[in-house]
Specification:
Oligomer: single chain
Structural class: alpha+beta
Radius of gyration: 13 Å
Shape: globular
Helix content: 40-55%
CATH architecture: 3-Layer(aba) Sandwich
Distance between the termini: 11 Å
Number of domains: 1
Strand order of the largest sheet: 1-4
CATH class: Alpha Beta
């Protein structure tokens, strides 16, 4: 999967929409402070599911995206996970072992 394909996914938007309903002040803070997004490399769909579960256990917003299958990836494949926005220290508890994309 190309970096562009990953970057085009809806994980950020999914987290944004979810948090606008539950914690709009956090979203506003994120918007005012540069809207940081970092892409990290995972190894499998199973790892994405595990990371999503860990993030949710820490009360972080986490949304995985299933690909529509219109381009490079088979329909229904879990291809990306969005986590946050949240304090860096919390996100690092989930993703600190991953390498930059």
């Amino acid at each position: 999967m190309t970096t562009g394909k990953i970057a085009a996914h809806h994980a950020t938007l999914a987290c944004y929409k979810a948090l606008m309903k539950t914690n709009p002040k956090l979203v506003q803070h994120w918007e005012r402070t540069g809207q940081a997004k970092i892409a990290l490399r995972g190894s499998s769909e199973d790892e994405l599911l595990e990371l999503e579960a860990i993030a949710k256990s820490l009360n972080l917003c986490a949304r995985s995206i299933l690909d529509a299958g219109r381009t490079q990836i088979a329909a229904g494949s879990r291809t990306v996970l969005g986590i946050g926005p949240a304090p860096v220290e919390l996100i690092n508890q989930v993703t600190g072992h991953l390498k930059l994309l």
